[in-house]
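Morning. Coffee machine broken again, so started the prediction first thing and wrote up yesterday's gels while waiting. Chain of 238 residues, entered below exactly as on the submission form.
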Amino acid sequence: MNRLNKLWKKFDRLTEECYADLDSEKTDISKWNECFNILLEIISDGRQTAPDFARELYLLDEETDYCYDVQGWIEDYMDVLDTCEMYVELESVCRKLLKLFDWKEEYPSDVRFALALALGDQGKQEEALKYCEDWVADEKDNPIAVSALIHTIINMKDFEGGEKIVRQYITEDTVCTDENSVIFVAALRLYKEMARKIEDALNEYDEGLGEFLTEMDDEDFALDEELLRSIDEELPFD
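Came back before lunch.
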């Protein structure tokens, strides 16, 4: 068995362990990381002997008769990193994936979306915004790019800016489809956040008004007590 086959076998064993952990509701992220590193070794070794080896991500599955579901595992790996709030690692994985493959036959919208949100979740809001704005400028008809931009703007609490983008892509006549549903999801989140902000403001004002009225009632009660005492003192009888 050559080195490449051994690496594939190891990848297969580790992916099984990764999913077994998930099924038991525990996550050993070190196994997922090791699995990804093995995948990088497989690609590196393959290209040493054949420079065109797996130039597209889907070819890793096609060239192995879909035995390992590499694409599915990579998606799950990114989800696990996001769930574990390992945003630095998620950014790194996304950038490596974008460099590893040519992306001429399949476009990496999902990877770019994950990268944009990973930047924002690290607090790199301005970098995330610039990334999404450039992406939309290049691909204004890409709903995933638009969705990433809206989510990034929401994270920056720029609800007015987010609504401006939403209205560019969703009008009264716009029908929600499989293709643009991600924009509708982003819009729904935007308006929920706006409603929450309004609700918080209403609660704050309501609480402030309530305190004010309570103080007024206390003052009125104190004045009434004082008035009753003064009247009682002036009465000519006990």
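Residues 177 and 184 are 9 Å apart (CA to CA). Going to sketch it on the whiteboard this afternoon.
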